Amino acid sequence: RLVTVLNGPNLNLLGRRQPEIYGHETLADIEAACRALADELGLGLQFHQSNHEGELIDWIHAARDEAAGIVINPAAFTHTSVALLDALNAFDGPVIEVHISNVHKRETFRHHSYVSLRADGVIAGLGTEGYGLALRRVATLIGLAEA
Ligand code: DQA
């Protein structure tokens, strides 16, 4: 079974972008760690990043037919995008929202998430480890759904 991992705007710059907040790991490092873990869990993995809201929405639509669950770091679209929320509301499987930084410790505009209205779980402030934890949770929820 397949899990789709989606990353929003500016996350292509991870490792070089505000490393004091987001750390030194790159998105390629995160993808490699997710692929290793997905293998271990017996899951297929799709891993995408886009700076464009519509492209993320198209991937969520594709996930309706292809994926059992979604892990998403919507980045700044977290705080702005009703359209991403609507797309996720049209997806039936588990959705876990991930933020590398602890958004609640930062500016107040980062405290509200549209995506959290849909997410089954939210991970924030655990660094890039959050992606692996989110994948494990999706694996659990897929298993629970089948039980
Ligand atoms: C982020 C937090 C967002 O507020 C920010 O816009 C990002 C990254 C995180 O992973 O901590 O781009 O989603």
UniProtKB/TrEMBL annotation:
Site feature: Transition state stabilizer: 17
Lyase is among the record's keywords: yes
Subunit structure: Homododecamer.
Main function: Catalyzes a trans-dehydration via an enolate intermediate.
Pfam family, one: DHquinase_II
Keyword presence, Lyase: yes
Residues that coordinate or bind substrate: 73, 79, 86, 100-101, 110
Pathway linked to the protein: Metabolic intermediate biosynthesis; chorismate biosynthesis; chorismate from D-erythrose 4-phosphate and phosphoenolpyruvate: step 3/7
Source organism, top-level taxon: Bacteria
Record EC number: 4.2.1.10
Enzyme class: lyase
Annotated active site: 22, 99
SUPFAM superfamilies the record matches: Type II 3-dehydroquinate dehydratase
Protein name (database record): 3-dehydroquinate dehydratase
Family recorded in the similarity comment: Belongs to the type-II 3-dehydroquinase family.
Catalytic activity line of the entry: 3-dehydroquinate = 3-dehydroshikimate + H2O
InterPro entries for the chain: DHquinase_II (IPR001874), DHquinase_II_CS (IPR018509), DHquinase_II_sf (IPR036441)
Keyword set, alphabetical order: Amino-acid biosynthesis, Aromatic amino acid biosynthesis, Lyase
